[in-house]
Amino acid sequence: MSTRRGVGLSAFQNRSSLNTSYATHGAALRSSHLSSLQTQLSVFQSLLHTFALQHSDKIKENPTFRAEFARMCNAIGVDPLAGSNMTGKGKKSGKG
């Protein structure tokens, strides 16, 4: 019976090492999930900015759509009307 709980000081030591193991594993999972979410947010911001550049006329024409689009963009930190928001994505180079 390997699931039997220990008694005495060894039970506290085993429980302590198990808690440490869970804490380490939890920290690794949080770090992995954070990295994944940051990547997803970055991709979404880039695509949203590209959409804003491609459909700027439609966004400017429709006040209801413009308000909702601006609200969504502000929630994730994208300025839909600023051409300098994303470097190198959908912009012409100012050099030359």
How would you characterize this protein structure?
The structure is a single chain. The protein has helices at residues 9-54, 56-61, 63-76. It has 96 residues and is mainly α. The chain is rod-shaped and about 75 Å long. The termini are far apart. Residues 84-96 have low confidence and may be disordered.
In short:
The protein is mainly alpha-helical and 96 residues long. The protein is 69% helix and 0% strand.
Features:
96 residues, mainly alpha, 3 helices, rod-shaped, disordered C terminus
Which helices and strands occur, and which strands form pairs?
Blueprint: H1 9-54, H2 56-61, H3 63-76
Taken as a percent bin, the fraction of beta residues is under 5%
Main β sheet profile: none
What is the helix/strand order? HHH
Cα shape = rod-shaped
**Low-pLDDT windows of residues:** 84-96
Average predicted confidence as pLDDT? 78
Overall radius of gyration: 25 Å
Number of strands: 0
* Helical coverage, percent range: 55-70%
